[in-house]
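Appendix C reproduces, verbatim, an entry submitted by the partner laboratory led by Prof. M.T., so that reviewers can inspect both the input and the predicted structure.
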Amino acid sequence: MLNALAVAVAGGLELAIGEPPTRLHPVAWFGRLVGTVDREWDHPLAVGGLAAALLPLGVAVVVGGSVALAATREPMAAVVLAGLVLFLTTSLRSLLTTARGVIADSDADLPAARDGLLALAGRDASALSAGEVRSAAVESTSENLADGLVASLAAFVVGGLVAAGASLPPLPVAAGTAAWVKAVNTMDSMLGYRSKRVGTPAARLDDAVMWLPARLSALLLALACGSPRSVARARAWLDGVPSPNSGWPMGTAAAALDVRLEKPGVYVLNPAGGLPDMATAQRSVTRVGVAGVLAYLLAGLGVLAWF
């Protein structure tokens, strides 16, 4: 019950606040720590492997220990703290707001839309057409459903279940596991580029961590779009996507909306379709929001069912 209450606290904070300012966000603080690793090293793989092993683990220990300490004083304080941790490791409302703004600008003010896209997608937007900007926004919201929400919620649920099976306190372990997953994902987003050998271990770890959340997100999107067959259709287009995981929610969105999603020179999802128009792109953002609500509900119900 306490774990389910923590999920409710996180969902309530997401609805009420959306996301705290960057200067106050612990994920941004962790990002500055990761930034100290982002330089040239004589043995980049060794340094990167050590960082990928120790930095997320350190975050998990601090978070889990804090929740455990709070639980010794007042159980509800531990619930609020765990809910706050889960909230800080997820992002949905700000993602949807940013995507809607980019899509709205794609027809009215294309340069502004290209600039706004930088907050969603790590690609050169300077030469993108309006349709390609909308495609990138749809791709990013679909992919970030997994990275920014489902991964942490799933980690919270699974961590609590494993802890209960091992006779450990579920709430501290659940919160620590969610924080660990977010730390791994943050390291990958900062260091996981082919040009940065130091980031290779974090990238490989993130590939493993995101295997399940990416596929869960695809299923949630299919449900939100009322298109259960879209996950199976997406499989045919995934070979061209460099990431082993991100193609699943993006491909599912392409199939469910019957649009082409394209990163020029890299991949094309649903090549027979056309690039999303304004209405379709905005509808996709709404469907990601529905999938996010479903993720919160399923996380809460999953905790209650097992405990």
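Residues 2-306 form one domain. Additional entries are available on request from the coordinating office.
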